Automatic annotation (TrEMBL):
Transmembrane segments: none annotated. The keyword Repeat applies. SMART domains: AAA. This is Sugar ABC transporter ATP-binding protein. Residues 4-242, 258-499 form the ABC transporter domain. The lineage of its organism: Bacteria, Pseudomonadati, Pseudomonadota, Alphaproteobacteria, Hyphomicrobiales. PANTHER family: CARBOHYDRATE TRANSPORT ATP-BINDING PROTEIN MG119-RELATED (PTHR43790), GALACTOFURANOSE TRANSPORTER ATP-BINDING PROTEIN YTFR (PTHR43790:SF9). It comes from Tianweitania sediminis. GO terms for molecular function: ATP binding; ATP hydrolysis activity. The keyword ATP-binding applies. Signal peptide: none annotated. It comes from the Bacteria.
């Protein structure tokens, strides 16, 4: 008998059907992977199981018995714990307080000694991979994104729930952190726990899962045993049989790359998190930044954009010095930056889509006033190039799925084409279909002569799209992979050998 069953669960928000028919069966001692495009309904299904969303119809069963879960607290009494994709931490509280936030020892008068002792048990599970500055007494606001994600994972583990749901828990983690987390999940599975795991990373799905359920357009379309399927079949199920554009074979550099004009030149650049980074970037080239997460790749891109100015070194754009002292200055010189952290660096929360897609155009053109119809006309080609799905320019950005929000962020830079496009893990947390659209456009932009720097935490994205790859380790470039050397083996070797 399945421990958890969801039958024909549905949820509608106004005119939007978030979930048409969600079906899921999870056994005891199983890691059950849930996969689907952004907006397909997988997160909605998990929130229904966890009590944070009330379904419109359908049935939930625990150990064969129908249940109604009205809120997260009730879900907890039924033995259900969840890690939410959007972190729910208290920034000014300590790591220990956040881990045990729903069950502080002592209640109103917190037993601090017991708090630290209990939280330390979960911190110890990740001993050696949490990074500098991570401790029970550290405040969450002082932590890096990967460390905050670890706190959220520890928070879910601390529930000791028989059923644990993890909604994209590895998006900000490096490989060592992911490996440790997977070891923990395998131990929990061996203890008989039931684990629902959402991920967009195909390697994680096949490394960890026992079965996979695919949701497409709000409906469960199939459940397969992991050892009886492959990545190609899963992708076909996700996109309805159309898998074109998902090839990950290494991109062959164009024959004229060597003769192309150097657009961006970086010499011995150093700053917080990186040192002595040098490279030249040609027109029409896609330069990949590889290596383990947090080895300086993002810091270099933010420095080039002026968000975190470098402490030393030189940068020139089209032969002229680039003073990267502020984003405003670099934008005016033709530099664009897209972050994978769309909430921090991308979307303008609470504002309509038109305002989210046109601010860079307004800055570049020095527009004090502009007719909305004129702005819509300028924005449409960029949005269409990315195959962005939205109901209207007046709708709030929050009405879109994560993948379409990211397309809005990218489109804002393409209304007035930049000379250099800096991509800082731009596909983090978006679905495979959105990734396909994005990389098709990136290759097209490069073919038209745009110079592109791409950092990705997914090796397949670098191998499939970059002309060459600079592998980072400890804040510096340890190896450059070109031509036939651009292989997964060489990339892994270069990333791990000095780690």
């Amino acid at each position: 008998m399945a421990r958890l069953v969801a039958k024909a669960v549905s949820k509608t928000y106004g005119a939007t059907k978030a979930l048409r028919r969600g079906d899921l069966e999870v056994e005891a001692g199983e890691v059950h992977v849930l996969i689907g495009s952004n907006g397909s309904g997988k997160s909605t299904l998990c929130k229904i199981v966890a009590g944070s969303v009330r379904p419109d119809s359908g049935e939930l069963l625990l150990d064969g018995k129908p249940v109604t879960i009205n809120d997260p607290q009730e879900a907890k009494t039924y033995g259900i714990g969840i890690f939410y994709q959007e972190l729910s931490l208290a920034a000014h509280r300590t790591v220990a307080e956040n881990i045990l936030l729903s069950n502080l020892p002592g209640g109103v008068f917190v037993d601090r000694k017991q708090l630290v002792a209990t939280a330390s048990r979960y911190i110890a599970l990740f001993d050696g991979v949490t990074g500098e500055g991570f401790s029970a007494g550290a405040t969450v606001e002082a932590l890096r994104p990967d460390q905050r994600q670890l706190v959220e994972i520890m928070k879910a583990l601390s529930t000791e729930a028989p059923i644990l749901i993890f909604d994209e828990p590895t998006s900000a983690l490096d490989r060592a952190q992911v490996d440790r987390f997977f070891d923990i999940l395998r131990r929990l599975k061996a203890e008989g726990r039931s684990i629902v795991f959402i991920s967009h990373r195909m390697d994680e799905i096949f490394a960890l899962g026992d079965r996979v359920t695919v949701i497409r357009d709000g409906e469960t379309v199939a459940t397969k045993r992991i050892d009886e399927t492959d990545a190609a079949e899963v992708i076909r199920l996700m996109v309805g049989g159309e898998s074109a554009g998902m090839e990950t074979a290494a991109r062959a550099p164009a024959a004229n790359k060597a003769a192309a004009q150097t657009v961006l030149s970086v010499g011995n650049l150093s700053g917080v998190g990186f040192h002595n980074v040098s490279f030249d970037l040609a027109a029409g080239e896609i330069l990949g930044l590889g290596g383990l997460h947090g080895q300086g790749q993002s810091a270099v891109l933010r420095a080039l954009f002026g968000a975190s100015p470098p402490s030393s070194g030189s940068v020139s754009l089209k032969g002229e010095p680039l003073d990267a002292n502020s984003p405003r200055a670099t934008i005016k010189r033709g530099v664009a930056y897209v972050s994978g952290d769309r909430r921090r660096d991308g979307v303008i929360a609470g504002r309509p889509i038109l305002e989210n897609v046109t601010p860079i155009h307004a800055l570049k053109q020095r527009l004090a006033l502009a007719a909305p119809s004129s702005l819509r006309d300028r924005a449409k080609p960029a949005l269409e190039a990315l195959r962005t799905k939205f109901a209207g320019f007046g709708h709030p950005i929050s009405s879109l799925s994560g993948g379409n929000q990211q397309k809005i962020v990218i489109a804002r830079w393409l209304i007035d084409r930049p000379d250099v496009l800096l991509l800082d893990d731009p596909t983090k947390g978006i679905d495979l279909s959105a990734k396909t659209d994005l990389f098709q456009l990136i290759r097209k932009l490069a073919a038209e002569g745009m110079a592109i720097v791409l950092y990705s935490s997914e090796d397949a994205e670098l191998l499939g799209n970059a002309d060459r790859i600079l592998v980072f380790n400890g804040g510096g470039v340890t190896r450059e992979l070109t031509g036939a050397d651009r292989t997964a083996f060489n990339l892994y070797q270069a990333a791990y050998e000095a780690a």
